[in-house]
Structures are given as C-alpha cells and as structure tokens.
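2 proteins. here.
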Amino acid sequence: MKRLFPFLILLLSFAFGVCAQTDTIGVHSTAMNKDIKCVLIHPSHAAAPGTRWPVIYLLHGYGGSYAQWPETAPQLQQEADEWGILFVCPDGGLGSWYFDSPVDPSICYETFITKELIPYIDSHYLTIADRQHRAITGLSMGGHGGLYLGIRHQDLFGAAGATSFFLQVNRDLHLKLLEKKIDHDYTERPGGHNGAYWSNSIDYQILFFRKYFRKAV
C-alpha cells in the first residue's frame, strides 16, 4: 500500500487538473534600490533527484507588467509541466525598453535581468544554469528586450526571440541574419498587435527553444 500511495496522489493530481505552480516573487535590485516583481511558472510535479530545468525569460510589452504573459498565455502552465521548463516573467517598468538609462539611474533593467535576476533564479530554483539551457524573448517592447539582451549577453543566453516588434525592422533583421548565415526561424502571420496574436506566437517560439535545449543534452 505504501508503494501505491504516491502513485494514487499523482493520479488524483491529474484528475483534478493540477498544473504548473505559479509564484509571484520580489527580487531586490541593488542597481535600482527596489524590489522587482516577477512571476515564475514552474513544473508542479516533484523533481527526481538531480533534475534541473531549462529557463525561458518572457519580457512584457510597453505599459505592461510582470503579469502580462501569464494573463495573455495561460497555456504556459500546462507547457511548463509537459516539457519541464521554468518560465520567468520579470517586470520591466512601463517603458524601459530593457535598457540601462544613461540619464535616469532608477531605470537599470538590463543590469537587473543580467546581473541580478539570473543569479537569483539560478540560486533559488532547480535550473540548468548555463547558456545552452537559457533563452529570452518577449512581446512588443519585450521583443526588443529579448533580442537586445540576447545579442549583448551571449554568455548568458543561448537563444533569443521576439514577437510583434516593428514589421519592417523584423524583415530587415531577417535579411541580415540570412546574409550572415546565422541560423534562425522567421515567420510572419496575419493578426493584430494584441493578446490573441501573442498567445499563439509564443507557442512556436517555445517549440524553437525546446529544440535548442535538446541539442545541448
């Protein structure tokens, strides 16, 4: 009976729709002298000894917040469980564009994400703490942040993406990547600058990141 008990608990969890655990945490930023809220979506099942997860950082858009991705793409909970991925959704301010401002010391979101948030996540959660298992992307302003930080910090991020970030700029970037023979996926789909588009497009990006993570195994 003792051997059956954990198995029964697992069956009941699936029967009642238990999915990934979602936490809202505050991570202190020394650079900005304040706590920054982040949503973490991580697998609900108990990890076997030695199990660690790859991480995808999801950046929100202009005027959004740390809650934008969980609200826009609720399927992230199921995907965290199915594929064993930790999603981290940090707050990037109303319009920081994920830069360190040269004129306003209260806006240092590049420093926060790359020097404060990543070490915090890797030290507090069961992550695979290397670039081959860490990706970053975002929507709109967060798409800019995903590519900006991914390109500038290739020691931290092995893959980067963007969705809904200035169509002609995206096309130009696509051509430049082809010219430089840099492997990438580029897709244009009909839709608007809205949640319905972002919710759909993020699934394709997660698929791209999953393939990248598997190559590192």
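next one coming up
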Amino acid sequence: MTGRRKIIVLPDAEALALAAAERLIARIDRDSKPVAVCLTGGSTPIRLYQLLGGIFRSRIPWPRVHWFMGDERFVPQSNPLSNMGAARRIFLHDCAPPKNIHAIDTDTKTPDIAAIAYEQELRIFQKSRDKQPLFDLVLMGAGPDGHTASLFPNSSAIDEEEKWVVGVANANVEPFVPRVSLTLPALESTHEILFMACGGDKRDILNRIFNDERLPAARAHAIAGETVWLVDEAAAPPSLHR
C-alpha cells in the first residue's frame, strides 16, 4: 500500500484481465441495488471486455448494471477510435440492455456541448443513487505521459473542481483528436478506482506515478473506498519486484 493506493502485481496481461474481471464482479455482488461502472478506453481493457462478454457473462446481472465511459474521442461511435464503440462491439451490444449503456454523445457540434449533455445525464443518474457515490467502480489507465481518462499533464482540466465533464480540444498523445472527459470530481466519486497497466512501455511512467509525481494518474483517488492498481510484471517498476 502506498498512501491510499494499493498495488497488486500480476504475472502477465492475461492474469491482470482475469483479476480485473473478478474485482468488477465482486463489486457488483456487494448488494442487489443498481450498479454503476465507468469504463475506460484504449487497448489495455480490451481483454477484460472480452472476458466480461465471454466466460464471465453468466456471472453478471446485466439488467441492474449501468455502464458509463470515463472519456471519449470526439468521433462517431462507428469510428474505430471510439471508446464506447469498441466496448459495444466487444461486449455491451450483446450483453447489456440498451437503456443501461450511457454513451457520450459525439454527434453534437462540439466537445463542449457533448460535455454539458453528459454532465446533465450523470447528475440525473446521481440523484437516483440515494446519497451513494456516482459510481461503484471506475476503470482507469495511465498513458505514457501520465494522463488518465483525457486529463493530460499541464491541462486546466486536471484542476477542474466544479464541472464533472469537460471538452478537451487537444490531446497530448495519439490519436490527436478532440476528446470529452470526466474530471476528477466525477471519477473520484466511486467506491473503487481500478487502474490497469501492463507492458514494459509503462514501467517508467508507473515509477513516476508511484513516486507521487504530480501527474494526473497519480492524483486520482476514490473518495469513498479503494484505489487499486493492477500491474503486470513487465510494467512493474523495480521497487515492486521482490
């Protein structure tokens, strides 16, 4: 444990995805109320999503689980770059009731307009939560520059305290398209943040994050519970190897 951060090292990416699936299902199983899960984009969670729609499918009570997205590229959902589009194709379309899939509307004129609309949806949903945090579990990742969701280093969005969702005009990393991103106040309103990081290319940035450098991924902490990092051995900094 490092401060409020729990780090779990797994042998490889497959073990990491399996552990993430087990933690997600354990969180869902904690009670019989509706559950809110915030998904993440990029390549790291793809195997997790395949597992959720595959061998773990029968263990998920789909009618009472709501699925949100932590950030989105400002492209149509049919575009291969779309985070929610990928999640739909991999597992949501075949498993989740359509009314339980809460996508960011990228058919609006600008990311800022999309951000306003999604924040309204989140706030309406929050009112149904009976004083619980916005989410039960938030999946997150860490980019090569230490960004998480689409909150990039040195961006004013990382210090936003009032808005739950913002438009992001410029991305620091590929793909260089505008984004819509939840802010820390929304992402941290959860019982659990579950970071996933795998591969040797993540080792240097994880070393900086775990040394509490002031990077976006190092600043995200669940306000109502646990912040857990699942890291495979290839990504784990030397200090985590025994």
